[in-house]
Amino acid sequence: MALLEVKDLRTSFFTDAGEVKAVNGVSFSLERGKVLGIVGESGSGKSVTAYSIMQILAPAGKIVGGSVKLDGKELIGSGEKVMKTVRGNKVSIIFQDPMTSLNPTYTIGSQLTEAILLHTDRSKKQAKERALEMLRLVNVNEPEKRMKQYPFELSGGMRQRVMIAMALACEPDILIADEPTTALDVTIQAQILELMQSLQKELGMAIIMITHDLGVVAQLCDEVIVMYAGSICERGTADEIFYNPQHEYTKGLMRSLPSANSAGTRLQPITGTPIDLLNMPNGCAFAPRCDEAMRICIDKASPEFEVGEGHTSRCWMCAKKAKEKGEAIIEIEGGENNE
Amino acid sequence: MSNKPLIEVNGLSKYFDVNTGLFKSKKLKAVDNVSFSIKKGETLGLVGESGCGKTTVGRTILHLYNPTSGEIVYDGKKIKSKESIEEFRRHATMVFQDPYSSLNPRMTVSDIIGEPLDVHKLYSSKKEREEKILELMSHVGLNSEHASRYAHEFSGGQRQRIGIARSLAVNPDFIVCDEPVSALDVSIQAQVINMFEDLQDKMGLTYLFIAHDLLVVRHISDRIAVMYLGRMVELADASEIYDRPLHPYSKSLLSAVPVPDPKIARENKRIVLEGDIPSPLNAPSGCPFRTRCPYATEQCAASMPEFKEVEPGHFVACHRVGEIN
What we know:
The complex is a heterodimer. Chain A is α/β, with parallel strands linked by helices. Chain A has helices at residues 46-54, 80-86, 98-101, 108-119, 124-137, 143-147, 156-168, 186-203, 214-220, 238-243, 248-256, 295-299, 316-325, and strands spanning 4-15, 18-30, 35-39, 61-70, 73-74, 91-94, 174-178, 206-211, 223-228, 231-237, 304-308, 311-313, 330-332. Chain A has a nine-stranded mixed beta sheet, with helices on both faces. Chain A has a four-stranded antiparallel beta sheet with strand order 2-1-4-5. Chain B has two domains: 5-91 and 172-324, Rossmann fold; 103-171, no CATH class. In chain B, 33% of the residues lie in helices and 25% in strands. Classes of the chains: A alpha/beta, B alpha/beta. At the A-B interface, helix 8, helix 9, helix 10 and helix 11 of A face helix 6, helix 7, helix 8, helix 9 and helix 10 of B.
């Protein structure tokens, strides 16, 4: 059984302008000890997916359907009391901006021990020891001194280390990292990614890595989900997604990246502008920007096709190509494919 | 690209006064003794981490900040007096990073783009102003129907196009692009980069392209300069600096870039630097990089390495450049 199973998750934001379907039928599963990457542009629903799993949505946001099972136990509708035992204990999250995630008026030490006291039955002294141990684990230098310092006295990379220490203090099974290195400089990003990689090996937790940076995904992830306009358009192993992309959006993303050899040549951008979630088309959400769009793409959203082992794509082009080659293609009903 | 430099920067420094207590202040050396030149039609990429002074270089060149010392020579003329600065700004403009805060929310697109025309009085009739604005909008791929709208009605990529149209209004030769694509999504980024390149071909523009995304800089630049703590540490041709970086900081910076290719990423030997960037208020003595440099010696702490040409066109500021490469 998978550690985390998300099935047909739907989350909407109810705004004055209407309902925004931020997450629109997302299904995936996560095995113990694996690193799953979720990539997509701003507004693709990758962060909202994570917040829905943790049930920490902004007041306007509501989970309107689907299921999230952790170790076989349903979380949606389980109530705040159950969620409090899940958050921090079983699933932890770190955010993009380590400055706003820490309270500026408390010391690092008191924030770390608070989290530990809240989730475990350690005494104050034990909690403090645990906090020090965690700071050492994430390679914070002079941990005793750092415990007494305030967040503003630490650099961005150091703060993100403290956030990771806090998230891992209660040994969660899953760490959700929401753009953990986006606000950091390249050399600091390399430090944090290296740290996450070594902690993952040491502690064996599963990681959901949410990012827009395909370089970060390539470095860290076993499996990758590509999201566009609230839905998963393609999923597969990192190698499959990077070397054998099947969805036109994923292909476009890969083509549009500048590389070492692209100097002097023109980049191949994806045309058009990102989709307006208030005015979603009937068919494939990517069709208005897709160079290969056919009539059926505009009329009807594509089902999920299996294009390889553990590799699926929601793109009519896959069916067309299979037909041309005279091969059969397996159509998967949404959400039933995660066994 | 001609061989004559369009813009020369000689020994440019910009210090800021920072209050460190009552009646006490300290000099923050945001840019310290930086020299380079850009040829006509060339793109010089300027990279470095936050706080290294790359944005300050761009702003000081345009005299948005008054330089503390050093000189800027544009097309053979020194930029110093008030008149020369005003004249210079008719040839040199800037594109800003954040397409949200750099456009006035209370102005329509045509007023935003038309403002430089008003300031420099570049039209003789209202009709001519109108025509010029529409022409600028078509250069950056905006429709005439967009002219009467406000900035908030556009997506990030389109806003950046408005900002670029504004910078083109005075028909400049030189544009300082300060992280122009950092705030944009990957799929939109490529559109805007292509536009910069097309405009350069069409109008013979010269760019100082400031960015922290090294893959983007590599793609667009002819030459690349690397800055660290207010100092320039290396300057060379784009392909040269990527294939054979000589300064230890450039080496680690380039190896730290996550490559969007899983096989290369798995095999890649990253040089992960220890520690953080020191505060520019307490910059280390001698070479600014020595606190994080794996090759640092006593000499590095004692004296500042000279920024010198070690190979034709390849400048490095490192005492040990000969030994470590």
